[in-house]
Write a structure and sequence with these properties.
The chain is an alpha/beta fold. The protein contains 15 helices and 15 strands. A hairpin with a 2-residue loop joins strand 10 and strand 11 (237-239). The protein binds 2-acetamido-2-deoxy-beta-D-glucopyranose (5 copies). It is an enzyme of class 3 (hydrolase).
Length: 496
């Protein structure tokens, strides 16, 4: 009896310790968007997340190739529904049932660990002019009903990712004055009530960068986590950063309306590295390191000591995103388009970011302005404009990493972007005979601005489909189960 007890306890302890080491950086989430001309293969991205300790991912919609790659990955999923689909979902519960059957149940049964359905994406943003206001709550209710019908009511929770402009504080600007925005106040209460009744969290996106972008007089040190000379004093609390102040404004708004224990998730937070004078590597690193250090310490805010689950925005740059909000929109990644590391980030436990593995590139050739071409050629401006309409030239803009190149390098940058974006195709380096392909790496003459080579998705696709690598993926997924099974069999062995 004695030996049974001790070996059983010992085994439990081993299982417990294994759990700790398997889930080393618990509670680290990231947004994975796929609006890129050349999205990295999902298998490479899943490995990238695991290698960097991300154990939660937020997706903007149900894409089969992405969800398939997350099977048995150990990564928890928040699955988004685009705003454009809200009206359809609101129109009837049958549509929601179809959505849940096809996009949730089907993947859950195949080993995708879906924990949340995020209905809409910042649907009440003021710039949408109430386009999604009426459909959001009915869509949430229909998805919830469909989840219950599918037997997933406990396992999968609904939520709505909201922009931080759904709440505000009065003229004083202190968190304790926080309440929901007047024009949607009653709607917000109905939504929060519904989420609360279903033990679901509220999700909020907080962007100190956008505060700075919108207001050039915004005190810049308040945007980061490193303290400020002019804290916002709210009663006995001094707020030293906009994140705490913003988050606590929501906590106050919830408390004031009777929801003081409502769970909150930070659905998006981050800092872009290009496309604006405040979007650069130093600021992005400073902000994201401040954020990461809080997550590692398990630090909450003055008003709520329990830290929220946080999903960093974003994982990888997306060169096909709309630039309506600004040129920075394509540069939110902590990794570049190819999964390479942009800057050093201390991820805790003596770890820093590690790059994607197994990425294949096109051959080392670039499209540049021909040596004989004249800068005053009448076709040059149109050629640059054409290249930049079909490829991402946001790095050339004011305040960006490639701004201020001389005219020749500027043209070459645009030509090369187009050539790479079109997979180095024959004919993609032909701008009225003003361009030429070179195998000698060209230099832009500006640090931090490079002529890039695009990733070769054709090679990825082949690599992804080989049976050997698929089998390796499955083995990896079962590794943990195998160890548990081994330990369980040892218990049985000792007992008998
Ligand atoms: C599943 O989600 C995708 C992506 O949002 C959508 O296009 C599709 O219509 C959904 N399926 C159903 C049955 O609603
Ligand atoms: C939302 O519903 C209200 C009340 O039914 C209606 O007056 C309003 O026009 C609707 N808004 C939109 C954008 O459809
Ligand atoms: C952290 O990593 C560095 C370099 O890999 C190593 O030299 C150092 O001993 C490590 N420190 C700890 C506390 O593990
Ligand atoms: C550089 O290219 C951009 C296109 O993004 C163009 O607007 C600008 O005029 C060019 N600058 C020079 C100096 O040629
Ligand atoms: C480019 O050069 C070739 C050969 O020199 C010539 O045949 C062609 O017409 C030129 N094309 C343009 C658009 O100038």
């Amino acid at each position: 009896m004695e030996s049974y007890n001790s070996s059983f306890l010992w085994t439990l302890m081993v299982v417990f310790l294994l759990n700790i080491s398997f889930l080393s950086v618990q509670g680290l989430g990231v947004n994975w968007g796929t609006r890129a001309t050349h999205p990295l293969s999902p298998d490479i991205v899943v490995k990238l997340m695991k290698d960097n300790g991300f154990d939660k991912v937020k997706l903007f919609e149900a894409e089969p190739f992405v969800l398939d790659a997350l099977r048995n990955s150990g990564i928890q999923v928040m699955l988004g529904i685009p705003n454009d689909f809200l009206a359809t979902l609101a129109s009837g519960v049958r549509v929601a049932e179809d959505w849940v059957t096809k996009n949730v149940s089907a993947y859950v049964s195949r080993g995708v660990d879906i924990r949340y359905v995020a209905v809409g994406n910042e649907p009440f943003l003021k710039t949408y002019k109430n386009m999604f206001t009426n459909a959001t709550l009915p869509a949430v209710q229909n998805i919830q009903a469909a989840l219950i019908k599918a037997g997933l009511g406990r396992q999968v929770k609904v939520t709505v990712p909201l922009n931080a402009d759904v709440y505000e504080s009065s003229s004083a600007g202190v968190p304790s004055e926080g309440n929901f925005r007047a024009d949607i106040h009653d709607l917000m209460i109905s939504i929060v009530q519904f989420l609360s009744d279903n033990a679901a969290p509220i999700t909020i996106n907080i962007y100190p960068f956008l505060s700075l972008y919108a207001d050039p007089h915004f005190p810049i040190d308040f945007a980061f986590f490193s303290g400020t000379n002019a804290p916002v004093v709210d009663g006995s609390v001094s707020y030293t950063n906009v994140f705490d102040a913003n988050y606590d404004t929501l906590v106050w708004a919830l408390e004031k309306n009777g929801f003081s224990s409502m769970p909150i998730i930070v659905g998006e937070i981050g800092w872009p590295t290009d496309g604006d004078s405040n979007a650069n590597l130093q600021y992005a690193r400073k902000f994201n390191q401040g954020l990461m250090s809080r997550i590692i310490r398990g630090q909450g805010t003055p008003k709520r000591k329990t830290p929220p689950d946080v999903y960093v925005f974003g994982l990888i740059d997306e060169d096909a995103k709309s630039v309506d909000p600004g040129n920075f929109e394509r540069h939110w990644g902590i990794f570049k388009y190819d999964g390479s590391v942009k800057y050093k980030l201390d991820m805790g436990k003596n770890r820093t970011l590690v790059p994607a593995k197994g990425v294949r590139y096109f051959q080392k050739q670039w499209c540049v302005l021909a040596p004989g071409a004249s800068e005053s050629d009448p076709n040059l401006a149109d050629s640059i404009s054409y290249a930049c309409t079909h490829a991402d030239c946001t790095s050339l803009g004011y305040g960006s990493s490639c701004n201020g190149l001389d005219a020749r390098s500027n043209a070459s940058y645009a030509f090369n972007k187009y050539f790479q974006t079109l997979n180095q195709q024959k004919g993609a380096c032909d701008f009225h005979n003003l361009s030429v392909i070179t195998k000698i790496q060209p230099k832009t003459g500006k640090a931090g601005c490079e002529f890039e080579i695009m990733i070769d998705l054709g090679k990825h696709e082949k690599a992804r489909k080989t049976p050997a690598s698929a089998a390796a993926g499955r083995l990896q997924g079962y590794g943990y189960l195998a160890i548990v099974a081994f330990l369980l069999s040892s218990i049985v062995g000792w007992v008998s």
